[in-house]
Structures are given as C-alpha cells and as structure tokens.
Amino acid sequence: MRREEAEARLNALRAEIDYHNHRYYVLDDPVIPDAEYDRLMRELVDLEAAWPDLVTPDSPSQRVGAQPLKEFGEVRHRMPMLSLNNAFTDADVAAFDRRVREALGRPDAAIEYAAEPKFDGLAIALHYEQGRLVQGATRGDGYSGEDVTANLRTVHSIPLRLREADVPPWLEVRGEVLMLKRDFQRLNEEARARGGKVFANPRNAAAGSLRQLDPNITAQRRLTFFAYGIGRVEGVELPPTHAGIMDWLARLRFPVAAERRVVNGVDGLLAYFRELGARRHDLPYEIDGAVYKVNDLADQARLGFVARAPRFAIAHKYPAQEELTVVEAIEVNVGRTGALTPVARLRPVFVGGVTVSNATLHNQDEIDRKDVRVGDTVIVRRAGDVIPEIVGVVLDRRPKPEPPRFDILQHYPVCPVCGSRVVRAEGEAVVRCSGGLYCPAQRKQALLHFASRRAMDVEGLGEKLVDQLVDLGLVHTPADLYRLDLPTLAGLERMAQKSAGNLLAAIEKSKHTTLARFIYALGIPNVGEATAGDLARHFGSLDALLAADVEALQQVQDVGPVVARSIADFLAEPHNRQVIGALRSAGVHWAEDAGQRTPAGPLAGKTFVLTGTLPSLARDQARDLIEAAGGKVSGSVSKKTDYVVAGADPGSKLDKAQALGIPVLDEAGLLSLLSPPETTQDRSV
Ligand code: D41
After folding, report:
1. Which of the listed residues 32, 177, 201, 532 has the most CB atoms within 10 Å of its CB?
2. Does residue 228 line the site of ligand 1, with CB under 6 A?
C-alpha cells in the first residue's frame, strides 16, 4: 500500500470508528455488532503499526497505552469554574426565582429556565484546539486544577476530535465525569471477589479512577462524561440560550443529559424537580438534585455573579440519603454459594424514603476496613434501590469501654443453619459454610435465585414454599422443580388446589426462557445478570459455554481472571453438569433451539425496539412484557424491526423508524397488542 492510500484509509477508519463510538457510548444505540466494531479497530491498529509516523494523538487507538505519570501538572482555568449555590426547599427555589425576576427588572414575568439533572460526579474542563482534544483538567478549587488529559482520553464518551466542518478554533467544554451505577456495582463486585478496594459510592469510584497516575488503570474503570456547559470559546457564533448550547454540544457528539428540559417560572421548576425525583432511581447514573439556569444567555450576563457562584443558576438538592444510627448486633446470612454474609442489625432509621433496620457488611475485609463493632454509631446510606450500606463509623461515639473487633470465624465457627464447619479459603475475602448443597440454607437460596423474576421467573415460588419443599425433601436441585405434580403441591401447607395449579403452570411456563436468563439462574458465583448476558451473547449456545476453558472465558468482554475461574470451577463440578443436564431433559429451552419450537404468545416472532420514557412502564418492565408474550426486543432499528415503541423524549430510533416506515406505538398501543380483545375460540371437546 502506498503512503497516500494508507493515510486515506486511516482517515476513513478513524471517522467510521468515531461514529460508531458515538452511537455506542453516547447514544446507547449501536448500529453494528461488537464484532464488526472490533474488526474496524483491529484494522486501524494494524495499519498504524505498519505506518507508525501516521499515528495521531486523536486516533481512536490512542485512548489507552499512555505511560504512567509521576504527578499531575497544574492547569490554571482561564475562566474560573464557578460553584453553585444550593436550594433545599421549595421556598429556597421560590426565593431564587424572585431574585432573578427582580434583578432583571421583570418582577411579574415567568422566567424561562433550562432545568437539568445534577450529576453526582466531578467537574472537569476539556480544551479543544482546532477540534482536537488537547487538554483535560479537574475543577480543583475553581481557579486551578490538575491536568488529567491522559486519563480523560480513556473515557469513550469524550470525543478526541470534533467532526463538524465549522469547529471553533478554540472550545472549552465543561461537564461532569462519573461512573454509571452498573459499572460501579461491577467494579465493587470484582473488587470484593478479589479482596480489593471497595468504593463507598459511584462518585468516590469516579474520583479514585480519575486521579490514577496510570491511565491504564483509569481505562479499566469505565468512566463516563456529561457536558453541562462551555467555558472559553472562540470563532463561532453561539446560540442565544443555554438549551441551544446544549443542543449544539450534542451535535458535536458530546454526551448531554437526555433529561434536560426548558420550563417556565417557579412552578415549572418544581414540577421538573418532582418528575426527575420520581425517575431518579431508574436513571443509569446517580444524581443528587437538579440544576436550574436562566435560559437566556443575555439575561445570564445581566445577572452576573455573587462571590464565586452565578446569580443565574442554582442547584436544587434532594434530601440527604445518609443518617446516623446504632449497630445493635452483627449476624450472618448464609447465601446460595454458602458465603456467610455479615449483616448489621440497626436501630431502625428513616433514610432515603424508607425505614432501614439492616445493612449488609459484605465480608470480613469490609468489617475490618470500616472497623464496625457492635454498639457503634454509624452513618447509613441508602442510594436508590440499592441495599443500604454503612458508610463509616463515628469513632467519637464508640462506647467505653470499647467493644471488641468483630471476627466472623470467631463468632460463627460452624454454619448457623446446618452446623457444618465454616472456612475461609486462602486469598478469598469471604468465609463459607462447607456444607454445600447439604446445607438447607444454600439449597433454599439457590432455588429462590433460580426462580427469581430476572432468572427463570417462576411466579409464586416464594420463600415459604421453598422452605417447605426443601424441608420435606421434595426438592434438592432446581431440576426437581420440574418433577413436581399437582397432588404433591396441593398437599403443602397453605396451598389450595387452585394455587397449586397456578404454580404448576408457572413452572411449566418458565421452561421457555433465554440463554442469558438460564445462565444467570444457575447461580454461578460472581456471575450476575450483566455477566450472564455477556456470556450468552459471546458463546451463543450452552454447549459452547460448557466447552469453554478459563482462557476462552476470559475472551468475554468484562470477564476477568477471577470471574473466569469461578465459572470454570462451577462448570467442572460434576454435580452442576448433572443439574444442567436434568434441566434440559425436563424441557427447559431457549431461542438457541427455537427452530424446533415456535415461541408462544401474541407477539411471537415480532421484534420491538424501545425508545424514550413510557408513562407508566419502566424499560425493564416493557421488555419483560414483550418477551413474555413471545416477542423480541432489539437495541437498534432495522428493516427487520416490526414495531418501535416510543415514549417521551424519544431518541434517533424514532426518526429511523419513521424513515423506514416502521409502525410506531405508544405505551397504550403496546399494551393493547399484549392483550388483544377477547375472542371466542372454538374448542372441540
Ligand atoms: O450536573 C452537574 N453536577 C452540574 C454542575 C450541572 N448540571 N451544571 C453546572 N453548572 C455550573 C455553572 C452554572 C456554574 C456553569 C454544574 C456546575 N456549575 C458545577 N459543578 C461543580 C461545580 C460547579
């Protein structure tokens, strides 16, 4: 290949990869499979290896691999990064709005505001010269911060170069770096399995990751970015409003909050705050409030600043999600893998909207690290729908004389459920009951997990029933569930003929599932829902997974050595192979062999794409309903899509559906497809 040809191909590849990167990491709406993206990336890397002098710092291949630093350089912000004043009550917001109206000399007007989520991350500034990312800095004290350019380059949602023909010669974009809830959970799960550092919340995890001197560590942490405004800009005419600037940034491929909105007056602000609050826990990232900004930039300039905060903006914070309480006891639960999980029994306390009386302590390392002792006063945090956590101990309030350190093995030398020895394996953070499936607690938990909604979804198989089934020796493994019959079930306590029939039907229905759910249902240690999905996608069939060794398992995205080993160990266990075989013989099946069975249900064979926010169904719920009715949900619109279901603020998927002439439904439309009007069916008896 001639040099000019290589250069042209490199340019084309970089543009194409940038485009797909934006579809994947910013719009969450990829248009090509991962394997195709990997192929493009490989071609780029190979070509750059052959032409090393054609490598540019803004090439998508250059996100990782930079050398570790000794320390961060200092960056002085040419325009200070201001802070935000806080509002905690409706009255605070009303007072802010009144000050704005009065200062603008329009006491009776309804001011137009741009309202957006307040991301709970770290503020940073990104500098683009001629459209190339040249520097990224933390906010620091607002006047100078740290040069974290190499780390920010690893964040896939941050563009390394801008695509528009008319990019400004100079552009400073400001926003927040954060870690998505799911990436945070995964990071901590991995850390716990390894006995590594566990972070208290996504914000700390993001801060710890951004301040790594080795960018290769940051690269493994999956940070993300959302722009909230601009700093110094030269050489372009800016839109006249904040909302216009955010739209412009979105066109330049910066991630901006989909939840941003323009509202009028204080009523508009408060309604926005309530709506955002209701959806807060379903958002993929943590927010700690909303930010309101006077939308008109000329008005913003007129309002100016007081001290270090603008008069045109305010942060409206949700109430604290942390409270103080006392640890009354530390007990253990025996989980489905035999792990003894210490649980702090707390003096009940109202936090984050619910009364909390238990908090998990995860394992001995966590107890040691936080040094939680019985009698301690602790800070309890409940973020979203996650399990309440103890953030730390208030040492000043530790009782005198000091209670002893808590050691699980010392308190529980044997399993409190089955009396088997409790052991801590070398290098493992958890202590386990050695009873295996002899231990009823483990068997019960394994069954409950197997039947749970996001696993095999056996409706009606709750704790009380599992207790009976295990205690009476009727069920030893999940496969035994499929051998239960009506007389047996009807003979159980609190089981009428009708509910026994319903349960049997639910067990029958669960036989039709997906490979991802099946893998998740097996309860392999360290394999949560996300990893199960990755495994299903990667291997495509159960037999391929069963044939994989540790090395092959590590090829799966996000599967590291710890998880790979855990899967391999599980699958190597003859007992587990037996259960898997028995489940298949019992008729459990999924799309892999759909060729032989036509999926049942009113939506059988139909493919749906969801976009935007539906009025009452969460995304998960909509997906579950469609799948339960035999339909399929896909991430991107194509000619094969049968319906697009669109809610509020739909994304580009809606445009694409309209372009392809694919029918678009709202929530009501979807629901009516799910339950078509009753028709009389001919039944020959
Ligand atoms: O989401 C945020 N955390 C956020 C922070 C936001 N949506 N908007 C912000 N706007 C500003 C001004 C109005 C001063 C430009 C901010 C911040 N500042 C901010 N973040 C950290 C300190 C200040």
Report:
1. 177
2. yes
